[in-house]
Automatic annotation (TrEMBL):
<feature type="transmembrane region" description="Helical">
    <location>
        <begin position="135"/>
        <end position="155"/>
    </location>
</feature>
<keyword id="KW-0812">Transmembrane</keyword>
<feature type="transmembrane region" description="Helical">
    <location>
        <begin position="105"/>
        <end position="123"/>
    </location>
</feature>
<feature type="transmembrane region" description="Helical">
    <location>
        <begin position="161"/>
        <end position="182"/>
    </location>
</feature>
<feature type="transmembrane region" description="Helical">
    <location>
        <begin position="48"/>
        <end position="70"/>
    </location>
</feature>
<feature type="transmembrane region" description="Helical">
    <location>
        <begin position="467"/>
        <end position="489"/>
    </location>
</feature>
<feature type="transmembrane region" description="Helical">
    <location>
        <begin position="435"/>
        <end position="460"/>
    </location>
</feature>
<feature type="transmembrane region" description="Helical">
    <location>
        <begin position="766"/>
        <end position="785"/>
    </location>
</feature>
<feature type="transmembrane region" description="Helical">
    <location>
        <begin position="509"/>
        <end position="530"/>
    </location>
</feature>
<feature type="transmembrane region" description="Helical">
    <location>
        <begin position="636"/>
        <end position="659"/>
    </location>
</feature>
<feature type="transmembrane region" description="Helical">
    <location>
        <begin position="255"/>
        <end position="278"/>
    </location>
</feature>
<feature type="transmembrane region" description="Helical">
    <location>
        <begin position="290"/>
        <end position="311"/>
    </location>
</feature>
<feature type="transmembrane region" description="Helical">
    <location>
        <begin position="603"/>
        <end position="624"/>
    </location>
</feature>
<protein>
    <submittedName>
        <fullName>Uncharacterized protein</fullName>
    </submittedName>
</protein>
<feature type="region of interest" description="Disordered">
    <location>
        <begin position="1"/>
        <end position="29"/>
    </location>
</feature>
<keyword id="KW-1133">Transmembrane helix</keyword>
<feature type="transmembrane region" description="Helical">
    <location>
        <begin position="317"/>
        <end position="341"/>
    </location>
</feature>
């Protein structure tokens, strides 16, 4: 038997003859598709049996999930039962002291799994080669997996997304088990000459996934309609009371119990689409699929931020769904690859330069540090203990470290020390700044957009609720235009706000249906006017300005693809896809720069109503659900919100698809587009200035005592940014109070939008602390940039990077910092600055390009 895939201890074995067939030249797509139909045409019984087997392999775990964790099943009883057992704790159930261990059984199981995995690492289990030891390792890992599943089930009431994540990760594993069973029963189930690898197995999965998904969705809709299970106020209160939620109207567990069949159907449709990409003529590489899935998670994060304030459960559901989908795709990709994760990592290393061409590697390093850096720090003591066990040679199963080897002198293991040595040579000046910039972007999405934009719009809802219809339409358009001109702010909150305000004021004049239509038209008009302003007032008027063309990145391959598509003479599908799904600000401004006919762009943007209508309808339905609490409007609002999330994500995917298609099919035309010489000269000039600045403040040059304050400012800023991002991600409920667009500040926030103490308002005390750290980190970055500019200017004068010795500049004194802040220098490329003018001119290089 030959191993065909390995991932996380799970091995997929296939007969040797299957490997032989796989190594042979695979048939072309036509032959492959013929085999797909021949399986049902020539051997209908085998085709029916295969379809039934795959349907059962997908349907059984789906049925278990819906029965145990859905409101239409026994989810409410399961949540209540597991909560009772979980709250008893491990000490009571095991007959131990009440002071022993975690207070919950789920926490105890998580601790057991964590301690077991750490023990395996300390014993160097990954290096074991003895067959008996390998069987023991596999048994222990299987036990850890079982305990993890059990722990997630026990904590389902407190972490209701756990079961959904289990389903997302369990479905790929179930398909692997099915594949192995089929291969053992009939190795040539697709024909003697046809490949029978796991990749080929995937082409049969879309139809069973779609069938089970449709059945799940239809069952849920029938349960909602015929059993009076609408998402009404009474239903919310009932779930909250039965699940013992502290805030009866904000019971996330109850919401997920009710909507879990819809989420389950979304999971099934997602995997159907994923499997469809491996159909004939659509062969995808594992690395590309993993990268595309990562991109979908980023899109989901943006969509979740866009829909913040519509429903807390909906926003969290989108984010966790995307994250669990990434894990599930990762498992499938690793199992599909011949060499498992080792081959995936090797491909990343070999193809990484091509995959991220034009991207500074320091951005990748910064992204790794802000996401995994704290975990690495926590792992260092474990590595040190592992090294100690290796050196004492007290356990026969650990790696032997010779006394005369260099590794004997290490505090950490040789593997960890090698990684630390590679990290040490990074230019931490550049990596540190980029960590802060990534944190700024993340905080803008997770805090500014998700919290304060929603707070402002909710305040506006309350403030103008008594105004006339005309005044409300005017203020909606005005505020919408202002927010549209801010690049970080998405359009979804604006549409939802219009859906709340306009129907409330226009219902008497136009009726409920007419008021909703009016809200949709006002939202579309706001979108069109914003595009008009961006194209005419910014792109058209400022097209001659080099800096505006720099902001639009007109010389990049992506914008050149946009240019090819937008300059097509007629309104093609790809052109409409870019106008609707592309980012608002750069797309509209680029249309102005390229002198695209205004009428054509306005007509091409009209299909955006497909994106606008679900979001506006969601706001209107939430308004009516509050006005008629026992109606089905709450149910329709949730469904409309899910549709809105889907079309928002789909529009971005469509735009990305057409850009990728242009890069593949018309790459020569993209390369033939000449660069904007003025922008190129400006970019080259800025790159040269940045290079000079980077060389002057490279991390090795800042190790002297004269640069203590620069190092301190950068390190402190990085620490504060990473800490604030982790706290916001892990403890969002401890930082911010739940608040939606339909809430009022008086009822939900105690009458105050924000307070310094955090006792009232949208922020809690920890949230205020996080905001303070974020602000201090941004100030630290600004101060470090000012210091860096001065060091680079001094270096250009003295001709030496050792500016402290050349100029005897007192960096160690506090007066240096105050002098830099008061008199920032100007750095000019190619012109050696004079000493008596260094501190007389303001610095004109844009600091937002320093990263």
């Amino acid at each position: 038997m030959a191993k065909s895939a390995m991932a996380n201890g799970l091995e997929v074995e296939a007969p040797d003859n299957a490997d032989k067939h796989r190594n042979e030249s695979a048939p072309d797509p036509v032959d492959r598709e013929d085999k797909w139909f021949k399986l049902f045409k020539e051997t209908p019984i085998k085709g029916v049996v295969l379809f039934a087997t795959l349907t059962l392999a997908i349907g059984i775990p789906t049925l278990v999930y819906l029965t145990a964790f859905a409101g239409m099943g026994y989810g409410e009883q399961v949540f209540t039962h597991t909560r009772e057992h979980n709250e008893k704790g491990a000490s009571e159930r095991l007959g131990l002291s009440s002071d022993f261990g975690p207070s919950s059984l789920g926490g105890f199981l998580a601790g057991v799994v964590m301690c077991t995995l750490i023990t395996l690492y300390l014993l160097d289990a990954e290096l074991w080669e003895d067959p008996t030891a390998l069987r023991v390792r596999r048994a222990i890992l299987t036990m850890c997996g079982f305990l993890t599943v059990l722990g997630i089930i026990y904590t389902a009431a407190d972490y209701p997304f756990g079961p959904l994540c289990l389903l997302l990760m369990g479905l790929p594993v179930m398909q692997v088990i099915t594949y192995r069973a089929i291969m053992r029963f009939d190795p040539h189930w697709m024909g003697a000459t046809f490949p029978t690898g796991f990749r080929d197995f995937l082409i049969f999965l879309p139809e069973p996934f779609i069938l089970i998904g449709v059945i799940t969705l239809a069952s849920w809709l029938g349960w909602v309609i015929h059993k009076d299970n609408e998402w009404s106020t009474a239903q919310q209160r009932q779930y909250a009371e039965n699940l013992d939620c502290p805030e009866h109207q904000d019971c996330l567990g109850g919401f997920l119990l009710w909507i879990s069949p819809l989420l389950c159907a979304s999971v099934l449709f997602f995997y159907a689409g994923f499997a469809y990409t491996f159909r004939p003529g659509r062969k995808q590489s594992e690395l590309k699929m993993l990268g595309a899935s990562t991109g979908l998670v980023m899109i989901a994060l943006w969509v979740a931020s866009s829909l913040a304030g519509v429903s807390e459960g909906l926003t969290s559901g989108i984010f966790f769904f995307a994250l669990a989908a990434l894990i599930g795709v990762g498992i499938t990709v690793a199992l599909m690859s011949e060499g498992g994760w080792q081959k995936i990592f090797a491909d990343m290393k070999n193809k990484g330069k091509d995959a991220v061409a034009g991207v500074d590697p320091d951005w990748i390093r910064a992204l790794f540090m802000i996401t995994a850096g704290p975990l690495v720090l926590l792992f260092l003591p474990v590595s040190a203990l592992n090294q100690y066990l290796r050196k004492c040679m007290c356990l026969p199963c650990t790696k032997v470290v010779p006394h005369d080897s260099e590794e004997w002198n290490y505090t950490l293991t040789g593997e960890m020390q090698a990684r630390i040595d590679r990290v040490r040579v990074w230019n931490w000046t550049s990596v540190g700044r980029k960590i802060i910039w990534i944190g700024v972007g993340y905080q803008l999405l997770s805090v500014v957009v998700s919290q304060f934009t929603v707070l402002f719009l909710a305040w506006m809802n309350e403030a103008v609720s008594s105004w006339s219809l005309g005044a409300i339409v005017g203020i909606t358009i005005s505020v919408g235009l202002i927010l549209f001109l801010l690049p970080p702010v998405p359009g979804a909150p604006i549409y939802v706000t219009a859906g709340i305000l306009i129907p409330s004021a226009g219902e008497d004049s136009f009726g409920a249906f007419g008021a909703v239509i009016l809200a949709i038209l006002v939202s579309l008009a706001t979108k069109l006017m914003a595009c008009f302003l961006q194209q005419v007032a910014i792109g058209g008027t400022l097209a001659g300005k080099v800096w505006i063309r720099q902001i639009c990145m007109v010389n990049t391959s992506m914008i050149k693809c946009f240019r090819l598509i937008l300059q097509e003479p007629s309104l093609t599908v790809s052109k409409v896809g870019i106008l609707v799904g592309g980012p608002d600000w750069p797309t509209s401004v680029l249309c102005g720069i390229l002198k695209i006919p205004l009428l054509q762009t306005m007509i091409g943007t009209l299909p955006a109503i497909v994106l606008i209508a679900p979001c506006t309808l969601t706001g209107a339905l939430y308004y009516y659900s509050g006005k008629y609490p026992d109606s089905y409007y709450g149910t329709l609002a949730v469904i409309s919100g899910m549709i809105g999330a889907g079309v928002q994500s789909g529009s971005l995917v469509v735009a990305t698809f057409y850009v990728d298609k242009i890069l593949r099919d018309r790459k020569d035309e993209v390369d033939a587009i000449p660069d904007d010489e003025e922008v190129k000269m400006a970019d080259d000039r800025e790159r040269a200035i940045n290079k000079q600045r980077e060389e002057a403040v490279e991390w090795p040059r800042l190790q002297g005592p004269n640069y203590f304050w620069m190092r301190f400012v950068l390190k402190a800023s990085v620490f504060m940014m990473v800490f604030s991002c982790w706290v916001v991600t892990i403890l969002p409920g401890w930082c911010f109070r739940s608040f939606e667009l339909t809430d009022t500040i008086d009822e939900k926030l105690g009458g105050r939008a924000w307070t310094l103490k955090g006792d009232k308002g949208i922020t809690r005390p920890l949230g205020n602390a996080v905001l303070l750290l974020f602000f201090m980190s941004c100030c630290g970055l600004w101060l470090f940039v000012r210091m860096s500019n001065d060091v680079a200017s001094l270096a250009s004068v003295s001709g030496s990077h050792d500016t402290a010795r050349a100029w005897h500049f007192p960096w160690s004194s506090a007066g240096a910092v105050s002098m830099i802040c008061a008199h920032p220098p100007r750095l000019q490329l190619g012109q050696p600055a004079r000493r008596n003018t260094l501190l007389l001119h303001p610095h004109r290089v844009s600091t937002n390009r320093l990263a």
